[in-house]
Specification:
Helix content is about 65%, strand content about 10%. The protein is α+β, with helices and mostly antiparallel strands and about 500 residues long. The protein folds into four domains: about 220 residues, no CATH class; about 100 residues, no CATH class; about 110 residues; about 35 residues.
Length: about 500
């Protein structure tokens, strides 16, 4: 019993150190990728450091579902690769300890980690995603920090393009300034040039004050010209020369957060219970709308009162209702047949337009339902992926017996890329309604689960995965088994034939 406890502690020590290291590295890499994708939303906004730290914290929570399976794969591969490379795994097996017994403490830890991953994706992740996207949308609405470049146009101020040739950093003076004001549209743009300028913010930080010196402005008067009388048609623009001029521009630099309630109904901000309630609600609404639409179509019979409303086909109303439509049509005159055919075409077009409109309205409900179903399955696939990647990485490390960071990282990256491609393909198929949602979201698990079972079997039976002689022997054994079964089947058929004779 003492040896068993020491073995469990030894395995946990070897695995946990590598797991936390690889998890931190994976989170850092994925977080840098996410920041690079959102770089335009956070750079140049002039927000406080606390807001940026909050952005990083919520973004870090968002990359955990992808970093966790990759860290488990890499850590398990490195752990058993190190044990195999140092012949510790061979010594344990020689002492009578099976591979499953060696993996037992790690299996328990990964099982608990999978349960924790589910609770994380069900309770913590929805709240972090809600706050993350609220912060992203708030940053997008934030005006950029004023940083006028030299020698190029600056378009950070809405409705204006500002160009400066020289900037004196010590005094704050701007030299050779050109301003394009198109707040009234490009047809009535105003161009202002000045020898020098100064930039100030008002006390409430909501307006930008430009003080221009020794310049002139040119204003296009297209709109005034269009509204002018015939005697004023020859006025093309207005020119103004000034020694000093001030421009007050709306430029709110305050950071205002959006209300989180506006994103409460999004699928990323809901847990399992809320997702199920939303799916059931939209299902009831969709079924009710389908029933109402079908009843409406059935109630408006093709040759019923609604179809003949307004005297379109009064001749139909005069005929006995028990006659077949073909019989009625045969008794019509030529003009009545033309009217009936035209009425039928109009009715068909009207019903087609009605069906198309109904399909568009129902498609919104179906898209809403698919998004919630995808998010519902995603919470379970994360926990299952942790188990699958452990049963791929641990036996594969025991087979290849290569530790360190070289071979394990290469193999882990290749396997994770395969997983990501399969998972992304299934997600897109489910999102576009080409596959059922559960099929698309569990596709990667269905593909990787047999690989994990196969690798675990090969490692437990000490079969050489990359040894061609082992594969040849197994293939020969499989052929012998098939031949024996064929012989038994042939012998049984011959005995049955003799008995019949």
């Amino acid at each position: 019993m003492r040896l068993v406890k020491k073995l469990d502690i030894y395995m946990l020590k070897n695995f946990l150190g590598l797991f936390f290291m690889t998890f931190a590295i994976c989170c850092f890499i994925l977080l840098m990728q996410l920041i690079w994708m959102r770089i335009n939303d956070i750079v140049g906004k002039g927000v406080e450091v606390t807001v940026l730290l909050e952005f990083l914290l919520y973004a870090l929570a968002g990359v955990v579902p992808m970093a966790l399976p990759l860290a488990i794969l890499l850590a398990s591969l490195m752990t058993f690769g190190n044990l195999g490379e140092k012949f510790e795994l061979t010594a344990m097996k020689a002492a009578g300890v099976s591979l499953f017994r060696i993996m037992q403490p790690l299996i328990v830890f990964i099982a608990l980690l999978s349960v924790g991953a589910f609770y994380f994706s069900n309770y913590i992740l929805p709240q972090s995603q809600l706050k993350f996207w609220t912060l992203v949308f708030s940053l997008r609405q934030k005006s950029p920090e004023l940083d006028l470049p030299v020698g190029e146009f600056y378009s950070g101020v809405k409705g204006y393009n500002i160009y400066i040739r020289k900037k004196e950093t010590r005094t704050g003076w701007l030299r050779d300034v050109m301003i394009y004001d198109y707040t009234n549209g490009f047809q009535d743009a105003t161009v202002t040039v000045a020898d020098s300028a100064r930039v100030f913010f008002t006390d409430d930080q909501k307006y930008l004050l430009l003080c221009l010196y020794s310049g002139e402005s040119f204003e296009n008067l297209n709109q005034q010209q269009q509204r002018a009388t015939h005697t004023q048609k020859n006025v093309p623009y207005r020119r103004e020369m000034f020694a000093k001029k001030s421009l007050l521009i709306d430029f709110d630099t305050e950071f205002v957060r959006m209300d989180e309630s506006s994103l409460k109904d999004q699928h990323v901000s809901k847990n399992v219970g809320e997702l199920i309630v939303s799916i059931d609600s939209v299902n009831v609404l969709a079924k009710k709308r389908c029933s109402e639409q079908s009843q409406k179509i059935v109630s408006e019979r093709y040759f019923g009162r609604e179809s003949n409303k307004g005297g379109v086909l009064p001749v139909l109303a005069e005929q006995p209702t028990d006659l077949h439509p073909d019989t009625l049509y045969a008794h019509f005159s030529l003009s009545e047949k033309e009217r009936a055919l035209q009425h039928a075409v109009d009715q068909a077009k009207r019903y087609k337009d009605l069906v198309d409109y109904n399909s568009i309205t129902l498609d919104d409900h179906q898209r809403y339902e698919r998004k919630h179903l995808i998010e519902l399955h995603r919470k379970f696939t994360l926990a299952f992926a942790c188990l699958i990647f452990f049963f791929i990485g641990a036996p594969l490390g025991a087979i290849i017996r290569k530790g360190g960071l070289g071979a394990p990282i290469v193999i882990s990256v290749i396997l994770f890329i395969i997983y990501y491609i399969i998972d992304n393909t299934g997600y897109k198929m489910a999102r576009e309604a080409l596959w059922p949602v559960w099929t698309g979201m569990w596709l990667s698990s269905f593909v990787l689960l047999p690989i994990g079972i196969f690798l675990t079997y090969k490692a437990a039976t000490d079969s050489g995965l990359f040894n061609p002689e082992v594969w040849i022997r197994e293939l020969q054994a499989f052929n012998r088994m098939i031949i024996k079964r064929l012989r038994r089947t042939t012998n049984k058929s011959e005995i049955v034939d003799k008995e019949k004779e």
